[in-house]
Amino acid sequence: MIEHLYVHIPFCHRICPYCAFFKHTPGNTQLAAFVKTVLAEAARWRGQVQPRTVFFGGGTPTALSETHLERLLTGLHETLDLSQVCEFTVEANPMTITAGKAAMMRRLGVTRISLGVQAWDAPTLATLGRDHSAEEAKETFATLKNAGFPSLNIDLMFSVPGQSMSAWSETLATTLALKPDHISAYNLNYEEDTDFFEKLKRGLYREEPERDAESFYHALDTLEGSGFRHYEISNYATPGHESVHNAAYWFGKDYLGLGPSAVSTQGLTRWKNMPDTQRYIDAVQAGVVPHQEAEALTPEQHQLERIALELRTAAGVSM
């Protein structure tokens, strides 16, 4: 029985120049049809999955309207047995949350929100192409807190072009003042097929490992000094708020991915859904399995992945 479920929702109102995940603006996509299709794909796995964790990622899951998101959450409860879920995470951006949407998600079993803030200073937010101000992000965090979610995470990013060490330090201080339960602090990577990567190739941006290290250790010292446990390279948690879902990836557990471009792993078999939302919808509605590619891992490949991922964690690798 598969115990970990990921649902990919690829929609973003604005495309960030650093993001390499499969995503796009809603465009002409019929969102009601998208929701119906994800639920139809989930129905095929009824009896084979009983999630302990659920994670809605993207894209921006909360870019869905309150109506569509409620239909997806309600439908998932009707389609799969979610009675054993101990952690239900939804990724969110500040400009896509209302009090009504937050209350609805909490009512339908969401226990954890991961809020993509990335920075608190206006110049860094502008470089990252974010569509929110620091004040709007703070208001959103307060809305989520008032909705009663048991666990709140804030996503941050360092080594952004033009970001000074003082700006990074201030971002950490502002985040700590909000008292989140979990903080993810990611080193900016220049991923292919992004605007940032093109600027790197043209020499407009440059990688600076020494700056990366300085920013990383500053976050480590600051967050651990404030009571957070550094339990994975990019993740810090107050006691009891470590991400159970992400730990499933790091420690080689089976997981099912639903939605366009979602990846699944079961035993030594891994497959990926087609990274094309309309083709995904058409395939599932036609009764076709929406997989684009699949691979059979060798035991050696699986072991190497386990070593690489577990070395990212505080637990490390068993000799």
Give a quick set of tags describing it:
nine-stranded mixed sheet; 11 helices; alpha/beta; about 40% helix; about 325 residues
Helix percent band: 25-40%
Point out poorly predicted stretches. Answer: none
Q: Beta-strand level of the residues, as a percent range? A: 15-25%
- Calculate Rg over CA atoms: 19 Å
Q: What about the largest sheet?
A: 9 strands, mixed
Mean pLDDT: 97
Helix/strand/pairing category: alpha/beta
| Total count of helical runs of at least 4 residues | 11
Global geometry: globular
Give, in order, the helices and strands. Answer: EHEHEHEHHEHEHHEEHEEEHEH
Count the strands? Answer: 12
- C-alpha termini separation: 28 Å
Instruction: Please state how the strands of the largest beta sheet are arranged side by side.
Output: 7-8-6-5-4-3-2-1-9
Structure description:
- By secondary structure, this protein is α/β, with parallel strands linked by helices.
- It is built from 11 helices and 12 strands.
- The longest helix has 16 residues.
- The chain is globular.
List the helices and strands and how they pair.
Layout: E1 2-9, H1 31-43, E2 49-58, H2 66-79, E3 87-92, H3 99-107, E4 112-118, H4 122-127, H5 134-146, E5 151-158, H6 165-178, E6 182-187, H7 195-201, H8 209-224, E7 229-232, E8 235-237, H9 244-250, E9 256-258, E10 263-266, E11 269-273, H10 277-285, E12 291-296, H11 299-310
Parallel strand pairs: 1-2, 1-9, 2-3, 3-4, 4-5, 5-6
Antiparallel strand pairs: 6-8, 7-8, 10-11, 11-12
